[in-house]
Amino acid sequence: MSSSSSSSSLNPIAKPSPPISEQNETPDQLNLMILGKPYIASDKYLGRIRDESYEKVYAFNRIRNTEKRMKKTIKGFINLKDQDEENTPQTTIALPFSCEYGFNITLGNEIYIGPECQFIDVCPITIGNRTMIGGSCKFYTPSHPISPEERNGGKGPEWGKPIVVGEDVWIGGSVIICPGIKIGNGSTIGAGSVVTKDIPDRVVAVGNPARVIKKILQDGTVVPVSKA
Length: 228
Description:
Layout: H1 3-8, H2 28-34, H3 44-62, H4 66-72, E1 79-80, E2 92-93, E3 97-99, E4 105-107, E5 112-113, E6 117-120, E7 125-127, E8 132-133, E9 138-140, E10 142-143, H5 148-151, E11 159-160, E12 163-165, E13 170-171, E14 176-177, E15 182-183, E16 188-189, E17 194-195, E18 203-206, E19 211-216, E20 222-224
Parallel strand pairs: 1-4, 2-5, 3-6, 4-7, 5-8, 6-9, 7-12, 8-13, 9-14, 12-15, 13-16, 14-17, 16-18
Antiparallel strand pairs: 10-11, 18-19, 19-20
Family: Belongs to the transferase hexapeptide repeat family.
Pfam family, one: Hexapep
GO molecular function: O-acyltransferase activity
C-alpha cells in the first residue's frame, strides 16, 4: 500500500480546540495570543481555558500505563498529527508532563518526550516525526515587556512566538528553547543548552547560548565547524 493511500485510510484524532466562550466571555484575547500579538493573560476566558487544561494535565499524569495514557487521555488534549483513534499512538510522553493549553501543541509520529518536560504553549509548538526530547526540557513561547512599568505585574500585555522543531531531531536533557526558535531536520542539541537562535539542518549545537560546533553529513559522518 502506498503512503498516500495509507494516510487517506486513517481516522485521524480530531484536533483539540479551546472550549466555547460563555456569557461575558469573548475570544478576542485568545485569538491575539495564538497569532503572537500582544494580549492580556488575565482575561476571564483565557483563565477558564487554562483551568480546564490543568485538569487535563492532571488526568494525563495520573495514568501510569503508557499505552492507556497515550490512547485514552490524549484525545481532546494535544494534537497528534497523522495518527488515528483506533490504534495506540506511536508517540510517547513520559511522566510527569506539563503544558499551559495543550491545543497549541502538535506532535508528529514516533516522537519521544522525556520526563519532566514543560511546554508553555501560548503560541503553537510543533514537533516533527521521529524527534527525541530528553528529560526536563523547556519550550517557552511567551515574551514579556522589558520595561517594568509596561509589565505592571501581571496586568500588562504579553505576547508569544511559535516554536518549530523539525524531523529526526535529538534534544538532550535540560535544554531550554526560547520563543520563536526553529530547529532544522536531523540536528542534535547538546544537554543543558539554551537555544536563542534558529538552528539549521543536520548540525550539532551546544552551549548557552547554543552555537553550532559540528555538521552531520548525509553519510552520518560528523565534522567540526571551523571557528570564525
